[in-house]
Amino acid sequence: MATAPITKPASVRAAANMTDYDTLCAGFSWDDAQALIDGLSDGRMNIAHEAVDRHVASGHGEQLALRWISKSGSQQDFTYAALQTETNRFANMLRSQGLQKGDRVYALLGRVPELYIAALGTLKAGCTFCPLFSAFGPEPIRSRMEIGGANALITTARLYKRKVKALRPDLPDLRKVFVIDEAAEDTLPLTDLMADASEEFTTEAMNPEDTALLHFTSGTTGKPKGVVHVHQAVVAHNWTGRIALDLRAGDTYWCTADPGWVTGTSYGIVAPLTNRVSMIVDEAEFDVARWYDILEGEGVNVWYTAPTAIRMLMKAGTEALQGRDFPALRFMASVGEPLNPEAVIWGNTAFGQPFHDNWWQTETGGIMIANYAAMDVKPGSMGRPLPGIEAGIVEMDPEGDSLRALTEPQAMGELALRPGWPSMMRGYLHEQARYDKCFRDGWYLTGDLAMRDADGYFWFVGRADDLIKSAGHLIGPFEVESALMEHEAVAEVGVIGIPDETAGELVKAYVALKPGYEPDEDLRLDLLGHARKRLGPAVAPKEIAFRKNLPKTRSGKIMRRLLKARELGLPEGDISTLESDET
Ligand code: AMP
To answer: Which residue ranges does the record assign to the AMP-binding enzyme C-terminal domain (predicted)?
Structure first.
């Protein structure tokens, strides 16, 4: 917090979408944001109408909506008119295959055009869209498809064969699987079906409270949570894209997130398209030279990325930037994990402007706290709440049974938000009690610890629970523990996140073995391989350590907190409930 703020030149302040934060906050109502979207007759709406159809209707059909860059570097462009045609075809294709309003359409795809067409076409048809990260292994896929009751899946022949085919008996609701390439006897050819489908489709006029998107997020215990978002969320997506990312119609915008995670949908599809930008989609994984080529060659104006990627760019050093120039780059933002002050400052040196950190989570649907274009940036801070968002720092009142807001500067507590913004989740699917637990005394509790300084800037302190953030992906220790428990040698397992310079945290598992098994290197590799196969590389542990016993409470719960304190050499805290502990 000691680092000096990075001030913004007057020209940058004057040109920003939001020039005066305090004035806008004071006079703001969500009706103002609602007025920025089109809506459909009789108070109905559809996210896809706001993202695509209305721009074609207002004469911008020829503007580039999406430029796809394939792994090999070839490009495919879609104007807003082309996106309209393709999404109409997709919606018609769903209808012809018997999928109706309210059905759940899943996608398990890399960043290919079909993913974006499927997302918007699904919404047009009034179905719920649920993206799955393509690097998930079969286990996370099964649980998410089961919980959501997937009715259709869009994927590739290879992903289907490797990860889904064997699960089909467990997924009785799954009526259709469409593949974007070669279909087999139990899958359908998407391209052929779309070629036969009409280009005309009347976008379903949805009730604003109808479900639009289903995103899964991890819990510390139990299964992943299906987070329900409704069409009304588009009001917040559009508004936050404009205010927190400074998006302007006609901008070239690049969000590096995968739509398998919420950022890649809210800010990789909905916010940019509703703000009528031209977005870049890169199919390939992170690569320093490739990323700089895209930023420079495509003339990116607004770039939204993540701390792990920024740290990897920093590692590559300034040599990688030599001879490059980014005159078009107007705004750079970051989300998903804590962004270290050094990374913010490095951005300022390397690109002539800081990275603007912002904070939100799957449940909030959109950005809640941000560093804005017109605001001075305090390196290491997440910024200030959006106009329309009230954020507080709360703790349980030691005297009573209620929350109290901590108003004194620098007080540390749980980050809480006053519910009521349009993109707030409407529930955890089938889990009312788990949802209800998020709310107390008029606050939504985020599960993050934070503090606020005297200028109203918020600072992330850590998670209040055991969830792990690795390379921007939120990982539930329970899901990892469950997969390892399936292994015949495992008696007990506890999973924690350990600090890592690049990825923020790495998943580490502590394993106690059943009698008759030896904790040797072969078994360690076998366990790592088993977890990777079941969970996929993004979720599986990177390290495994053997223990004779794991620290447990008297009720038998493994004390991850204690495992972590020991790993990091921190004080063990209250261990009065500790039962067995022979390590
Ligand atoms: P997810 O729901 O996967 O988007 O993860 C949300 C969680 O990521 C938050 O509750 C935080 O723990 C973490 N997170 C998101 N943005 C930030 C940020 N700017 N700084 C620190 N942590 C963040």
So the answer is: 479-557
